[in-house]
Amino acid sequence: MSRVLIAGESWVTQSTHIKGVDHFTTSSYVVGVEPLRKALESRGHEVVHLPAHLVPAEFPADLSGYDVVVLSDIGANSLQLAPEVFERARAGADRLAALRAWVSAGGGLLMIGGYLSFTGFEGKAAFRNTVLHEVLPVELLAEDDRVELPAGAAAAVTDPSHPALGGVSGAWPDLLGYNRVRPRAATKVLATLNEDPLVAVAEYGRGRSAVFTSDCSPHWAPTEFCEDWDGYARVFGGLVEWLAA
What we know:
The chain has 7 helices and 14 strands. It is of the alpha/beta class. Helix 1 packs across helix 7 (231-244). The termini are close together. InterPro entries: Class_I_gatase-like, GATase1-like.
């Protein structure tokens, strides 16, 4: 069993309702981590979820209590700009440097795609400009890296025997988008989408890193992928288990 920290996969939505000359706003809080949490817990892993709005204040600089860290749909700013730095202009911990050092010393890092992953929507995820970029098994684009696939597209598995895929077999359900990245020289690309890396893994120092460049929940991962397909738990379980090995 591994202890897994998942940071991100939640958001707040605010809507403006206009009715004639009057208007009002409503807000909702959404958590998208449940398919991933359930998949990992079904394989015996302990999962700690740190919602996106708590990441700036609570993402730990000391990761010694975890085997694998998952960053999913959470941008670099949320990890770099703790309240004491952004609001009070005081020097604080460099948590991305601490995460890089933790992986190099033997930890496992998984980045999952989304609008605030990799380079992201309008470049706002911004991991290309950080020290964590070198830890990832892929090179990030300088521009908005999202590829929308509204008609859906299925993954092509290139290395079905690799343990990081968890022994999944058969066709994968369609996905509706992903972040485009480029593999590094030492990277193993295990699955592709539109001939771009979907699942890729690499060693980093004494640790390991991996990416899944589509999403683990809607909208890029429709219910047929993240709820109805028994391969979902195998893929993400396999990634976590390979990272923790």
